[in-house]
Amino acid sequence: MKRIILMVLYNLPFVPYWWWQLCHYAKKGEAYSQEKRWALLQKITRHANKGGRVKIESYQTENIPTEENFIFYPNHQGMFDVLSMIESCPRFFAVVNKKEVKNIPLLSQVFRIMGAYSIDRDDIRQSLSIINRVAEDVRGGKNFLIFAEGTRSRQGNQPQAFKGGSFKSAYKAKCPIVPVALMNAFIPFDRNTIEKVTVKVIYLKPIPYEEYKDMKTVEIAEEVKRRIEAAIAAHTDP
């Protein structure tokens, strides 16, 4: 909470206008191109992160597909994860989030601008519907981000088990899976501190459909987790 207050105070002269823009874009939705919506989200996110004393270091952005639509699968560290990726990613993406956060002010507007989906983990029929809608949207030209852990890790930079069901959308869309390793993204919003922090976002090589089509979803989950853990180990300071 302290860091969020710091972000607001640092950008206080611009906050009313940015809030109006967020609400306007959220209401109009598809009336604006993905490029315009993404430019707005990146502008606000960069200023907020700077004001909150958060530095984003991105690695291997060349691994983000430019010709195909895809699904990001990062490890889930906290509420700041999406902001770190908005700043560092040049391509528009939407998020599959849990229903509990869809009505939180600011997050609600951001998710609506993205065209995000909220999933009810206790409703199997609704969850299957979201899986199918995400696959259809990816085939139609949209990128997504899905947290395969289901909930944030409470163990710092150590990921939890990845759930196989999270990869069904990619399987149905036959799209590249892009593992993303997040480091220290749990600090900005999940630690009671305003000390300077560097969050690392590492985009790993995509896994094409041809490579995972004969694998079970639980096997895909294990492989994605393995690659993310290896990237975290490689980027951890000795």
Q: For this structure, what is the CATH class?
A: Alpha Beta
Can you tell me the number of structural domains?
1
Q: Per DSSP, what share of the residues sits in E-state strands of 2 or more residues?
A: 5-15%
- The name of the CATH topology is Glycerol-3-phosphate (1)-acyltransferase
CATH architectural label = 3-Layer(aba) Sandwich
Please report the distance between the alpha carbons of the first and last residues.
31 Å
Q: Strand arrangement, largest sheet?
A: 1-7-6-2-5-3-4
Which H/E pattern describes the elements? Answer: HHHEEHEHEHEHEHEHH
Poorly predicted runs are: none
Count of individual beta strands: 7
What proportion of the residues is helical, as a percent range?
Answer: 40-55%
Broad shape? globular
Query: If helices are DSSP runs of H or I spanning 4 or more residues, what is the number of helices?
Result: 10
Biggest sheet descriptor: 7 strands, mixed
Structural class: alpha/beta
**pLDDT averaged over residues:** 92
- The value of Rg in angstroms is 17 Å
